[in-house]
Write the structure tokens for this entry.
Amino acid sequence: MTLQVGLIGCGVMGSDHARILQNEVAGARLVAAYDAQAARAETVAASAKARTLPSARALIADPEVQAVIIASPDETHAELSIACIEAGKPALCEKPLAATLDQCRAVMAAEMKAGRRLVQVGFMRRFDPGYRAIKGKIGDSGLGRPIFLHCVHRNAIAPSYITSDLVLANSAVHEFDISRFVLDEEFATIQVVSGKATRHAETRRPQFVVLESRSGVVVTIEVFLDAQYGYDVQAELVCENGSASLSPHRPIAQRLAGRDGFEVESDWRQRFADAYRLQLQEWVAAIAAGRAVGASAWDGYAASAIAAAALEAAAKRTATKIAIGDRPAFYG
Ligand code: ISE
């Protein structure tokens, strides 16, 4: 069976999902696309011999569309996820799940009412082989119990609309999610120290976050979006007897002009190319098998709740409690 997928939002991430779905994923094809800018939808649709539809709602309702990728602006995510749930169609929704915590709760309520998990949040790092291997080391490798998780998240450059707050809400949110995934537990407190703005972005401050998990594991996170030299994500899990780190991501080695070195990718679509492919492949396979994989709506809510606490902690400059609450039984 070939899953017929509709795409809402044909910007940078949407068109990338369309390309991956068409060229690198088995068992699915793009049948419809919608974007508020019609020309973008037409370009994506033409590349897949798909149709364009006049609105997001029309795409979700279209009988040919069996599953939906939501890659439209953040403030539309919750409403469109709920529309997919009500139509009984699985959705892969780009992060964040919603613009507010109340909207995240509304998505969860709609799913619980429907009685099955239909929404997967696009936290693609959960499919990255490196993070999966680190997670696999916990419990059975002789490393012992986790003590620290050190995370570094550097972008070469960021668009000018990314404020210091968005450094936390838009970029650090990946670290919040992957830390929950690797450690498999929730966080109790958060502190944020803002670094100095650089001359490359005079109003955007790098952020340094310290999280403490409910069991006492300490997570440190540097998020610096103006690092200039490339896109660089690092993680080291320090345990009682040893540590496990992401290997430096080295697509090629180059010797040139008396130097021997490795290229650093320029952005996350290159660095996490495997993760994006596996995310879509496993989403398609899970739908065929009637299962759910990846980050659930609960995970989307939890990451956003940590981001909200991070904004509060940054403003108050003090350790702040994270009020996530208990995971509903529905989300296992
Ligand atoms: C961007 O929105 C992403 O989602 C990337 O994965 C992240 O690394 C980047 O910092 C964000 O701006």
